[in-house]
Amino acid sequence: MLSQKETSAQKTVVAVHTEGASYLKSSDRRGDAYAQEDESVKRPPMMKIKEEAATLLEMMGTIMEIMSTLKTEEAIEGVFDFANEKIMDATREVILYPGVHRRFLKMLLKKSKLAAAIRASQPNGTAKPYLEDVKVILKVTQALNGETKEKVLGLKKQVAYITSELDSEREGREAAVAVMRKMEGDIKEMEFALISQKDEKEDALKLVSKLKEKVENAVCVAENTKDKLRAANQEAEREGKALKAVIRQVSAELSCAKRERLAAATERDGWLQI
């Protein structure tokens, strides 16, 4: 059984067939109405009017065939915008009711875009039967006017060129995104390396500061020790000098006492001899 989207796409194709036939028939009626509005205006040749309508419809059939081969939303949007411009350019040269032609062709273009979008969402759905229906439209319109074959081929080439440009642009954009992501990764790595170096530098500065503080403390302790040693040496020198003075004094006193003892002994011996 067909899905809801496939049924909708097939209904769109049938509607395009019906509206295309009505469009060609109504071109004759518009030619008659144009002549009846003002008898002074020369009635355009009916074959010319029919050729214009057939040419426009053939152009739309070509665009619809191209639309049926697209598989991405970017390509569909690109062809849709390009076809809009082509419709505006083509209807400027139309003799009768260019606004009517323009509205009808834009309506067909919107339906074709909708069907293409449905097929893009379901690649294996309605692409094949829709393409066959579009080929039928092309055969009918090409039978009406064979002189537009070169224009159709040119239009196909232009659309194919635009499609390839869109694909190239998409590939370039994907490559640019990949390069940008790689650059972002490199930048993050560089930032991490800089942060790590900064942390290491700060740690080294802290260590140097601590070592400097320890050296300063050691120098201060050495200076204090040196001062204490100098004071101790000076005190020892003073005590040594005082001790030497005491020793000299004691020696002198001992010498004096010895002489006195010797003198007393001599005097005693003298008294004993008497």
Automatic annotation (TrEMBL):
InterPro entries referenced in this protein's UniProt entry, alphabetically: Myosin_tail
GO cellular component: myosin complex
Myosin tail domain sequence ranges: 146-270
Keywords, alphabetical: Coiled coil
Domain of life of the native organism: Eukaryota
Record keyword Coiled coil present: yes
Name listed for the protein in its UniProt record: Myosin tail domain-containing protein
Organism: Musca domestica (House fly)
